[in-house]
Amino acid sequence: MADIIIAGFGGQGVLVLGQMITYSGMIEDKAVSWFPSYGPEQRGGTCNCSVVIADEEIGSPLVTVPTAAIVMNAPSFDRFEPKVGKGGLLIYNSSLINKKSERDDIRAIAVPANEIADELGSARVANMVLLGTFIEATNLIKPESVEKALRAVLSERHHNLIPLNMQALERGRAYQ
Amino acid sequence: MAKTLMKGNEALSEAAIRAGLKAFYGYPITPQNEVPAYMAEHLPLRGGVYLQAESEVSAINMVYGAAGAGVRVMTSSSSPGISLKQEGISYIAAAQLPCVIVNVVRNGPGLGGIQPAQGDYFQAVKGGGHGDYHMIVLAPGNVQEMADLTTLGFDLADKWRNPVMILGDGILGQMMEPVEFAENQEPVNVEKPWATTGAVDREPNIVNSLDIIPEKAEKNMQALLAKYEKIKEEEVRWQEDGTEDADVILVGYGTSARVARSAMELARKEGLKVGLFRPITLWPFPEQRLRELAKPGRKFLAVEMSAGQMIEDVRLAVNGVSPVYLSNRLGGMVPTPEDVLTKTRDIVQGRVN
Amino acid sequence: MKTVFQKPEAMTDVPMHYCPGCTHGIIHRLVAEAIDSLGIREQTIGVASVGCSVFAYDYFNCDMQQAAHGRAPAVATGIKRVRPEAMVFTYQGDGDLASIGMAEIVHAAARGENITVVFVNNAIYGMTSGQMAPTSLLGQKTATSPRGRTVEEMGYPIKMCELLATLDGPAYLSRVSTHDSRHVLQAGKAIKKAFEMQQQKKGFAMVEVLSTCSVNWGMTPANALKWMAENMVPYYPLGVYRDVTAKEGN
Ligand SMILES: Cc1ncc(C[n+]2csc(CCOP(=O)(O)OP(=O)(O)O)c2C)c(N)n1
């Protein structure tokens, strides 16, 4: 059972990252829901999504007290770091967030996601790096499910990108 | 078919096409824009017509025309657009035409905002347009139901020759959940001998709502009301969980019911005896069952994203036997399970009256 | 020091929410400059419509009302009839004016209602994220014309200036563009003229301003300006479609 917030600015792959977790959960036959922030704030501004993974029917799909948060830029760090529930997990993109969590009641993991993505040759997989850290830290979903989800979500002609995405995932798993 | 992940707006669109939808008329408005986009993409390739009308007033009148011509037809919008459709809905109800109208409710009144809300409850279940009429109003609680109740909506519309409204909200429209569609689903083919299909070898059919002679108009109204009574007998739907021994029963539909479910789980962990009652048909409202559940000592808590609308129907149903309280948020704010839990505790401990 | 660039008095300090490259901001400025140069800010009552410019009431430093989708000309009529001394303008997009509000605009024009209409034609619904507008060009792909606009399915784009020019009511109808600075200057003159017509009680005046929506067109701002010049301007010829003062010879 997890209540997850993923946040960043438009274009960072925030919503897709949320969908990957949701899709992978569905493949593992869990109850899942994904809900995006919507409206004018999407354009250029920040965006976020709520993902809930559970064993039974999901109540509120809107996450207010996340058990885990993945934040990709500084404004999202400021907004969601304080909201993570006690004992929760915070994964943040240290390539763009020049801060540290002061909280001692949560587990915070800094991941230089953009640098790693650049090393891999594609800035677009920064979100997958963070996903790697997330699945390793939570054991919530298996890497195989993520691969299956990629296969299902990406159109055939983009399937050549799957190895790169899986590489990014592996790199992220090393950060704990 | 295997499960796929879809937005509620897309799921209901796919379900409508599978139910044999022949025409969709719409006008852009957030947060239902995925419906017309899905229809524009898919409907013309699957044997139907998609048309963006110049306004919601036009869109609903296009629906009137297509429904009168005997095909499965639908429109969708969100609150301000649904207000514009009210005139057309009244005409459709009076002419007894089957159609499905989707309202992905956003916060209002006025232009309001685009965030999820339930402030259109009265408009949907008490009339909305002029005259004595009712729509059948279905309230999905998840993405699967956005699809399933749309399918059901078309069947009920045809069965009763009545407009059906799917009353969702911004969350149900925008959220993604797994959804499954039945394999090889054949749309039910309902005979519509009354439809204007061309008077070949028969007397002309007339689709009309004009009733100018009072004696006749009253008889027709009585027939319409008799139909509504039968719908009340046959079509009431709801879901309940943990109501048998409950001290407090949470009542909510759609997104509010989901928040109430989370609150119920939190409350039970604290040892509070809390149950959940979720109306699926808002008209006809499951008043009979609520009446049975009401008893001295038991309390009800209506959970809403509106200013206290559905609570009136709960009060009418329990008819003073049990007290009914309200937990709500407004303006596009969504109640949290903690909000509802706090109120539930207050009720149990007698801190509210 | 000489001030070369200053915010018009008829504009507020509120930062605009428009996307990068959107021409709504420029057009707001032109309207505000026209109001300033005629010294009418305190008499002006603007009517914001529903569309990307819905928050125009925050940006214009004059009295403003916000109207329901498409109904701005009716709201403006209501104001002008009870406050004939006020300078009343509407600011409307193409979905608002040429689709849902077609009846309102046609009848305001036919009545020769003494108001000024600023009509921003960006060939798309911006606010609701890129659906087909009545002014979308043939072949144009939008969220609700995913295979491109066709005559068979959606008919032809609507040319509002030409259409309203069939009526006797309008006093001034002009189409301008914002694709380069020379045209922006001309647009400013036309908008000012449309306010002067109202001052002189000539009747209904509308300026149609061709505009970009790079985000929903899926282009860079620079490419959007180019696309507008190459595709919109040929279909929507610029020029004056009605000017009753020209007939009078002044
Ligand atoms: C009755 C009603 N229907 C639909 C809407 C949703 N809506 C808001 S803005 C808009 C389109 C505006 O497009 P346009 O007038 O072209 O202006 P732009 O956003 O492109 O500047 C629509 C359909 C609404 N607010 N009210």
Features:
heterotrimer, B: 353 residues, alpha/beta, Rossmann fold, 5-stranded mixed beta sheet, 12 helices, 14 strands, C: 250 residues, 7-stranded mixed beta sheet, globular, binds thiamine diphosphate
Question: Could you write a compact summary of the structure shown?
Answer:
The complex is a heterotrimer of chains A (about 180), B (about 350) and C (about 250). Chain B has about 350 residues and is an alpha/beta fold. Chain B has helices spanning about 10-20, 35-40, 55-70, 80-95, 120-125, 145-160, 170-175, 215-235, 255-270, 285-295, 310-320, 335-350; strands spanning about 5, 25, 50, 75, 100-105, 135-140, 165-170, 175-180, 240, 250, 275-280, 280-285, 300-305, 325-330.
Question: Can you describe what's shown?
Answer:
The complex is a heterotrimer of chains A (176), B (353) and C (250). The model of chain A has no long low-confidence stretch (mean pLDDT 94). A 6-stranded mixed beta sheet of chain A has the order 2-3-1-4-5-6, with helices on both faces. In chain A, helix 3 crosses helix 4 (126-138) and helix 3 crosses helix 6 (162-173). Chain A has 6 helices and 6 strands. With 176 residues, chain A is α/β, with parallel strands linked by helices. Chain B has 353 residues and is an alpha/beta fold. Chain B has a 7-stranded mixed beta sheet, sandwiched between helices. In chain B, strands 9-11-10-13-14 form a 5-stranded mixed beta sheet, sandwiched between helices. In chain B, strand 6 (136-138), helix 6 and strand 7 (163-169) form a beta-alpha-beta unit. In chain B, helix 3 packs parallel to helix 4. The termini of chain B are far apart. Chain C has one domain (24-248): 3-Layer(aba) Sandwich (Rossmann fold). Chain C contains 11 helices and 7 strands. In chain C, strands 2-1-3-4-6-5-7 form a 7-stranded mixed beta sheet, with helices on both faces. In chain C, helix 2 (56-59) links the parallel strand 1 and strand 2. The longest helix of chain C is centred in the C-terminal third of the chain and has 19 residues, at 181-199. The interface between A and B is medium-sized, with 19 and 29 residues. The complex binds thiamine diphosphate. Thiamine diphosphate (TPP) sits between chains C (50-53, 69, 93-96, 122, 124-128, 133, 213) and B (27-29, 56, 80-81, 84, 111).
